[in-house]
C-alpha cells in the first residue's frame, strides 16, 4: 500500500508572535534548529513514503517551494487553498486528488517529533487498520495534565496496537485533565491521521456532505501550473470552515487510535518552545544575535536587533525588526493580549 | 557683571545605552520630555544671561546647531574640541576666549534641573563672590546617601549664602555616604561652577600650567567659520586629559560653595530616569511606541521597534533599531556589562 503524506500548512497562528507573522507563520520558521518546522516535517516523510502532498495558503507558495527545495523534497503536489476553511476542506482536497486506495498520512506542518522512529513505527502499526477502512488517529500518550489539547479515549483493540477511538473530548479543565491522564486510556489529539482516501471521502459524504460537495466542485474546476494545483475559488468558498474532528472523526463509525510516545510537541507557545528547545547551562534558550549575561531560565530570540540581557530570570524576550515582546516565562499564552492590543490599533506588526 | 553660560557638551557616556550612542550621546536625546537635555539646558540660560558659549565634540556640531535652532537659542560661540580632554581643557577654552572679567556659568549639557528658579537664585547668590575672584561651585543638598557622586564639604561663610569649600571627596562607600549626608555639611559635586574667566585662567596657571599652555596655543592658532570656533588640533592635543576638579578646584585657594536644592539629577542611569521621569498610574515610565499591559514599575523606551510587554514588573526595557537591552530595575548600572560585552565583539551597536 502506498502511503502518501499530506502536510497541512494552512496555519497562520499568532501564538508565537512577534516571530510568527501572517506572511511567515510558525511552520515556515526555524524554531528548534536550522531547519524550519515545514522542512523537518517534509524531511520525516522521506522514510519510505511516496512524495508528499502539501496543502497550503496560496500566499506562501513561493516560500514553501523554496524551503522544500532547500531540503531536497519534491512534493507530489502543492495544493493552494484559495481561502482558509480549517482542516476538513483542506484534507478533503488532498483526498479528492489522491488515488482512492492511497493511504493518506495527514500531519500538521508545524509540529515537533523528537523520536521519528517511534512515529514511523506507529504509522506501520496503523497501516493495516487504515487499509481496512478505519480512520486512524495517532494519540499522544500524555505526560502531564495539559488543558490546551483535546483528548481521545481509547477502547477495545481492533488490530494489534490499534484501539477503537471511543470518544473525542474538547480541551478539558485542569481537574478533568488530571483524571484523564490518570486513567491511562486518554491520549492527546495531535491532528495526525492515517486513512484511505476513499474512506475519508465516504465519511465526508455521510457526515459533512457540504464539505465534500464544495471540494469536489473546486477540484473539478481546478487550474494549475507545474506542481501547483489551484482549486476553483468560487466552489471552494462554499465549503464551511470546519475541522476534520468536528466534521468526521467525532461522528464516523470506524475511527481508531494508535497511541504513541514520540517526543511530540506542537510548540503552541513560547513556553513550549523553551521546554523543548536547546538550552545553555543557565537554562536559557537563545536564538539569533543574543548576549545573555547573568540571565537564567529565559527564552530570548531575535531575528532583528541584537538583544542584550543582564541579570534577568524567567523571562521571554522576542525581538524582530518592528516589534519586541517581553512576558514572564510561564505566561506566554498572554501573547494573545499583545496581539489583541495591536489589532486594536491597526495591527501592522501582525 | 555679564554672566556668560558655558555649556559643556563633550560627553559621550554609555550609561544610557542603547539609546545613547557615540553619535548621539545623552545630552542630544529627549529624555524627560519633548526637548533634549541640551535644549532644556540652553533654554535655562535665557533668564537674563548673555548668549551661551557651547564647548562640544566637533562630530556633533551640526546636530547641536540644529537643536539650538529649534529652541531659538543663538550661542555666542560653538567651540569645537578637536579631541576629548575632559573638563579642565574644555572649560579653559571658554575662559581663554571670553572677556577676562566675564562671569562664566559653567554647566554640563545633560543634567536635569526641575526647579530652575532655585538654580537662578543660587547663581545670583554666587555672583558677588565670583566677582571677587572666588571659584564658586554649586553643591546639591543630598537627599540620600548616593555613592555615585563626589561630595564637597562646606565650611565657614565668606559672603551671604556662600561658604568656603573645605574639601572635595571622591565617590564614597555607602557607610561614608551615610555619614556625609547625616552631618549636613556635605553636598554633591554637580560640576556646575561660576567664576571670572581671568580667575580661572590664573588658577590654571598656578595648578595646571600644562593645560593652560596647550589651550592658549590652541586658541591663538584657531580657525573658525561663523559661530564655530576650531582650536588648533595639534596644540590642543598636548593638553592632558584632566577634570576641572582635579586640575583646579581641589587645589586652588579661593574655592567656595553655594548649596542649593533645585530638583537636580544627572540622569546617570536608567534607574535615575525612572525616578525623575513621568510615570503612568502603574508606575511605568514609557516613551516611544510602547504598549505596557498589566506591567508595573517599569522603564520602557523605544526609538525603534514597537515594544509590547505583558505582565512584567520592575524591568528596564530599551529598544532601538539595532539593539535591545533588558535589565532589572535597580540594576541599571549593569548596562556597563552589556557595553563591555559588545565592545569585546566589535561594538558596532555602541
Task: Tell me how many strands of chain A there are.
Answer: 19
- Share in β-strands of chain A: 25-35%
Based on CA atoms alone, the radius of gyration of chain A comes out at: 20 Å
Largest sheet, strands/sense/barrel of chain A: 5 strands, mixed, barrel
Helix content of chain A: 25-40%
Mean pLDDT of chain A, rounded to whole units?
Answer: 96
Structural class of chain A: alpha/beta
Report the principal-axis shape of chain A: globular
Based on the structure, what is the oligomeric state of the protein chains?
A: homodimer
Order of H and E elements of chain A: EHEHEHEEHEEEHEHHEEHHEEHEEEEEEH
**Which pair has the most extensive contact?**
A-B, 34 and 34 residues
Count of helix runs of chain A? 11
Poorly predicted sequence stretches spanning 5 or more consecutive residues of chain A: none
Strand order of the largest sheet of chain A: 6-9-7-8-12
Distance between the termini of chain A: 43 Å
Amino acid at each position: 500500500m502506498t502511503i502518501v503524506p499530506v502536510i497541512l500548512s494552512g496555519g497562520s497562528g499568532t501564538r508565537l508572535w512577534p516571530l510568527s507573522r501572517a506572511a511567515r507563520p510558525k511552520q515556515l520558521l526555524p524554531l528548534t534548529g536550522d531547519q524550519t518546522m515545514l522542512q523537518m516535517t517534509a524531511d520525516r516523510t522521506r522514510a519510505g513514503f511516496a512524495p508528499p502532498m502539501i496543502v497550503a495558503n496560496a500566499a506562501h507558495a513561493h516560500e514553501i517551494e523554496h524551503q522544500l527545495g532547500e531540503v531536497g523534497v519534491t512534493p507530489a503536489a502543492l495544493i493552494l487553498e484559495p481561502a482558509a476553511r480549517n482542516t476538513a476542506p483542506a484534507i478533503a482536497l488532498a483526498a479528492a486528488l489522491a488515488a482512492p486506495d492511497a493511504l493518506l498520512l495527514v500531519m500538521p506542518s508545524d509540529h515537533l517529533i523528537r523520536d521519528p522512529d517511534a512515529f514511523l513505527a506507529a504509522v506501520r502499526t496503523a497501516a493495516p487498520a487504515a487499509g481496512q477502512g478505519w480512520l486512524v488517529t495517532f494519540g499522544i500518550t500524555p505526560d502531564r495534565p495539559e488543558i490546551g489539547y483535546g483528548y481521545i479515549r481509547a477502547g477495545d483493540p481492533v488490530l494489534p496496537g490499534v484501539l477503537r477511538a471511543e470518544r473525542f473530548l474538547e480541551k478539558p479543565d485542569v481537574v478533568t485533565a488530571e483524571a484523564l491522564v490518570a486513567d491511562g486510556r486518554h491520549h492527546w489529539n495531535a491532528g495526525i491521521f492515517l486513512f484511505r482516501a476513499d474512506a475519508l471521502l465516504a465519511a465526508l459524504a455521510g457526515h459533512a456532505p457540504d464539505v465534500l460537495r464544495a471540494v469536489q466542485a473546486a477540484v473539478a474546476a481546478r487550474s494549475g501550473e507545474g506542481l501547483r494545483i489551484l482549486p476553483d475559488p468560487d466552489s471552494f468558498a462554499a465549503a464551511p470552515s470546519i475541522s476534520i474532528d468536528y466534521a468526521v472523526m467525532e461522528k464516523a463509525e470506524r475511527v481508531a487510535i494508535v497511541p504513541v510516545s514520540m517526543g511530540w510537541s506542537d510548540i503552541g507557545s513560547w513556553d513550549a518552545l523553551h521546554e523543548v528547545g536547546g538550552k545553555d547551562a543557565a537554562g536559557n534558550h537563545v536564538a539569533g544575535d543574543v548576549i545573555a549575561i547573568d540571565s537564567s531560565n529565559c527564552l530570548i530570540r531575535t531575528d532583528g536587533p541584537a538583544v542584550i540581557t543582564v541579570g534577568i530570570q524567567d523571562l521571554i524576550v522576542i525581538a524582530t525588526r518592528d516589534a519586541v515582546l517581553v512576558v514572564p516565562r510561564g505566561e506566554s499564552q498572554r501573547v494573545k493580549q499583545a496581539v489583541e492590543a495591536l489589532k486594536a490599533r491597526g495591527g501592522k506588526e501582525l
